[in-house]
Specification:
Helices cover 35% and strands 19% of the residues.
């Protein structure tokens, strides 16, 4: 059942006359998304440091933003490399600034947010190439940035969760155990909008036509829809780092996270999940709008803190 706080947000969006994303051009969709996030996000939390930097990418610099949490000492910090959501088409460093600040303080780790190339101007696999390049750069430059390259995690929300899962798969396939954890917030895990969607909540913040719009703007053609770098649900998941999955009950793509959790467990991967009753897609980090969202952020922070603690890397 939809939470009254979620109902109030939907009413607000309707009253503001914000059109459905899939009825807009990508440029206009990005502008409306920035406006909506600016209106609904809480005030930015104070952190110890925020720095805009550039990672070396395959087609030029990749903008990244480094956050150091309050209370961080002089020693190197563990780090979460975070990829924003937005269906691989919308979103940027600013739309997810508040979320990254909260994660940094909640987990007591540095966060490096990545502003990857998006469709339709830059179609798959451009986003995957950029986030991989940025993650490699963070590892390579860790000492100069005051980070501990031996304590790294990846994370993201929605399409960013999809990218985080793809990065984890890449490092597994490369035989590189650099990653300790993956934080997947209502992740996109499949291009199949039949098994990957709950029709009961079609139209609640997301609708099927919008999800298809995102795929059409991201993928160069239907022949790559089964590529494991985007359709991660059907990939071989054995040997991946442990995962935290954050879900919302009234999210139409909730089944994608649930199916991925089941598949990870079947592959022998340690997973813990948190589902917030009555919440909708996009709620994570919006504690001011959704006070009930605080529990999910707290859960994610604790899981990251445990995974990135100064201990031996957990067995997989």
């Amino acid at each position: 059942m939809l939470h009254p706080q979620a109902r109030a947000l939907l009413d607000f969006i309707e009253a503001r006359g914000i059109p459905p994303t899939h009825t807009l051009s990508p440029a206009n969709a990005r502008a409306f998304y920035r406006e909506r996030r600016a209106t609904t996000q809480p005030l930015p939390a104070e952190v110890a440091e925020v720095r805009d930097l550039a990672a070396e990418g395959p087609q030029g610099p990749v903008p990244v933003r480094l956050y150091r949490p309050l209370g961080s000492g002089a020693g190197p910090l563990p780090v979460l490399v975070y990829y924003h959501g937005g269906g691989w088409v919308i979103g940027d460093l600013d739309t997810h600034d508040v979320l990254c600040r909260e994660l940094a303080n909640g987990a007591g780790c540095a966060v490096v947010a990545v502003d990857y190339r998006m469709g339709p101007e830059h179609r798959f696999p451009a986003a995957v190439d950029d986030v991989l390049a940025a993650t490699r750069w963070v590892r390579r430059e860790a000492a100069a940035l005051g980070l501990d390259a031996s304590r790294m995690a990846v994370g993201g929300d929605s399409a960013g969760g999809n990218l985080a899962a793809a990065v984890a798969l890449h490092y597994r396939d490369a035989g590189d155990p650099v990653l300790r954890h993956q934080l997947l917030v209502y992740p996109v895990t499949t291009t199949d909008l039949v098994r990957g969607m709950d029709p009961e909540y079609d139209g609640v913040m997301l609708e099927r036509d919008e999800l298809q719009w995102h795929q059409d703007n991201y993928l160069p053609g239907p022949d790559v829809a089964s590529d494991p770098r985007v359709n991660v649900l059907d990939a071989n998941l054995a040997g991946l780092p442990e995962a935290t999955i954050i879900l919302a009950e009234c999210d139409p793509i909730r089944p994608q996270g649930e199916l991925y959790e089941t598949a990870l467990r079947a592959a022998g991967v340690t997973v813990r999940s948190h589902q917030t009753p009555g919440m909708v897609h996009g709620f994570f980090g919006l504690d001011e709008v959704f006070p009930t969202a605080t529990d999910a952020m707290t859960f994610a922070g604790r899981r990251l803190a445990d995974a990135l603690a100064l201990t031996e890397q957990p067995a997989r």
